Amino acid sequence: MEAAAKVQRQMVRLRGRSYVAFVFTPTVPVQDWLHEIDATIARSPGFFAGRPVVIDLSSVDLSQSGIGHLLTSLQDRNIRVLGIEGVEEAKLTPMMPPLLSGGRSCVVEPTAPKKPETKSETKPTSLLLENPVRSGQTVIFPDGDVTILGSVGSGAEVVAGGSIHVYGALRGRAMAGVNGHTSARIYCQKIEAELLAIDGFYQTADDIDAALRGRPAQAFLQGNTMRITALN
Q: Fewest Cβ atoms nearer than 10 Å: which of 68, 98, 116, 205?
């Protein structure tokens, strides 16, 4: 009777969910690095809004109080830190974000072992979108190129493992070569982008030459520098 009277409890249901996070790698002097963050925010006030951020401390040797000061400085800039990498756990307090491990540099990558692909199972290496990407929408295709026959609205985002082709106006964010493809490019018929990025190197709207705005353009990497030129 006593056993029958016990309330049956269900297991807590856990679900996984992946997010694309910015990884910050502070350098010394940290104050100068924070000034660079301020300059980015000044050029594009909403650049980090709503984005998960991870701090990689492998390039600096900060004390526990130094880490706390850094986190406070970022919070003062409305940058919320999801987790910390590259530091001994003993240097973190229970009030700090957790120590993370196992992060991958690519945007999306399956964790399960890949089975041999048959001809019918071969993944497409390009994605074609016939409709515009509207404000607030995000398109992520890490396996190759993305081609959009319409426009990309302000506040929209397109992320591709290869190149990005926009046959209309590009007003939102376009991030190409996210899996380390430095030869990726971004093409558009009308450049009005909020942000362009290739393999982590980026330019915001204020960095783009005013003479190019509203014209066909392409973006590509030349060494560690992103170049944006007219597309003839």
A: 116
